[in-house]
């Protein structure tokens, strides 16, 4: 199974620069000799080297397992390829039994979860083992739970002692291609023969996962009252917004921009499908002024708006709505502009904003201590349909 050769020069081209979170789970039990463990590490380095590594590109994490589980490093640990390869060289050799089920459980609960893995990119797990687990039934159950979460699992069995039936349970359902997620090789030297094919198949998964399903044209503008939120928080929010638009492979049917309050050192960005900030001076100050500006000119053709596109304002709030703000919001809604409110802190009364949204799912929380959760929520909305 899976012993085809491939041209490694085509691997990154197949990925097309699309982002993914790719995690390796490496068997480090006593049945693997230290010299073979090093060959396993070299194999992982060779595969990882084919990806475009970066915070907004492909992120890599690795854990090892025997009768115990150890996370070597997470998705957030290394965004530089050279640093990543150095870290792989330092991976531990554990020894002991083979508790695959427990390792998969840790992956499910600690790795592919909101706030750790990005929720709008492909999730890929590569499991390498040389034998069979101490509890095949539990391993099957844990693998099935990962599959249900949408994690694409590749299973690589090394040596003749591997349990092929168990590999099939660990690996994702391949559909019509019975070999697409499973590889077997006779020894650790033979891992060299599958590295290119594994990378290409992982890239094929990324390609399938990285296209948004949003069908209708949507123009979205983020409103930030910097004077109220503060420059530090505002810059952090803008960084997250830009990260989403870089990571999510948006179709041309979605454009975004952001307006900031006057007297800040942050500049507006008019509607476009890119993420580069354009130079423009805001005429209006405060939250009320931002809503007024968006209502009057933000979605106009002259500022990048499209006549038939859905119009949405993402409004960040850290204080209660004033009567003046409610008037502007009502006027905006009367001309077809929808709102999504992002609440910061505890001073905003969410009951005051509920009348202006289509449902409670359009009122989000922004935790300054865990901004990644906001990024995932916005990315999911933009990609799957607001």
TrEMBL record:
| UniProtKB keywords | Collagen
The family database entries (Gene3D superfamilies) matched by this protein are listed as: von Willebrand factor, type A domain
Asked if the record carries the keyword Transmembrane, the reply is no
List the record's Gene Ontology CC terms alphabetically: collagen trimer
The UniProt record lists the VWFA domain at 21-198
Q: Does the keyword Transmembrane helix apply?
A: no
Query: What PANTHER family does the record tag this protein with?
Result: COLLAGEN ALPHA, PH DOMAIN-CONTAINING PROTEIN
| The name this protein goes by in its record | Collagen alpha-1(XII) chain
Q: Which organism does this record belong to?
A: Mizuhopecten yessoensis (Japanese scallop)
Its taxonomic path starts at:
Eukaryota, Metazoa, Spiralia, Lophotrochozoa, Mollusca
């Amino acid at each position: 199974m899976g012993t085809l050769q491939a041209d490694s020069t085509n691997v990154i081209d197949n990925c097309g620069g699309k982002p993914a979170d790719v995690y390796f789970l490496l068997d480090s039990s006593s049945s693997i000799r230290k010299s073979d463990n090093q060959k396993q590490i070299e194999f992982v380095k060779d595969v990882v080297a084919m990806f475009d590594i970066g915070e907004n590109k492909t992120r890599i994490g690795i854990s090892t397992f025997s009768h115990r589980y150890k996370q070597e490093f997470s998705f957030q640990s290394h965004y530089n390829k050279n640093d990543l390869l150095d870290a792989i060289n330092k991976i531990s050799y554990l020894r002991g039994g083979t508790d695959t089920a427990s390792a998969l459980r840790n992956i499910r609960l600690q790795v592919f979860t909101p706030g750790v893995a990005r929720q709008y990119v492909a999730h890929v797990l590569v499991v390498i083992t040389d034998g069979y687990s101490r509890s095949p039934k539990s391993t099957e159950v844990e693998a099935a739970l990962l599959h249900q979460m949408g994690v694409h699992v590749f299973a690589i069995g090394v040596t003749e002692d591997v349990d092929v039936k168990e590999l099939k349970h660990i690996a994702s359902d391949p559909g019509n291609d019975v070999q697409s997620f499973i590889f077997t090789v006779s020894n650790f030297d033979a891992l060299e023969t599958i590295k290119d094919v594994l990378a290409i198949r992982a890239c094929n998964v990324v390609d399938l996962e990285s296209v948004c399903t949003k069908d209708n044209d949507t123009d979205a503008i983020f409103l930030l009252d910097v004077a109220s939120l503060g420059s530090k928080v505002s810059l952090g929010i803008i960084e997250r917004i830009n990260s989403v638009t870089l990571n999510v492979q948006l179709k041309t049917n979605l454009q975004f921009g952001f307006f900031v309050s006057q007297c800040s050192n942050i500049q507006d960005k008019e509607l476009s499908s890119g993420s580069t900030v354009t130079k423009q001076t805001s005429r209006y100050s405060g939250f009320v002024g931002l809503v007024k500006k968006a209502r009057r000119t933000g979605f106009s053709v002259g500022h990048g708006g499209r006549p038939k596109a859905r119009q949405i304002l993402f409004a960040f709030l850290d204080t209660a709505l004033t009567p003046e703000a409610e008037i502007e919001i009502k006027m905006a809604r009367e001309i077809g502009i929808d709102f999504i409110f992002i609440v910061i802190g505890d001073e905003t009364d969410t009951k005051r904003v509920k009348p202006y949204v289509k449902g409670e799912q359009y009122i989000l929380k922004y935790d300054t201590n865990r901004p990644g959760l906001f990024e995932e929520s916005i990315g999911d909305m933009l990609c799957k349909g607001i």
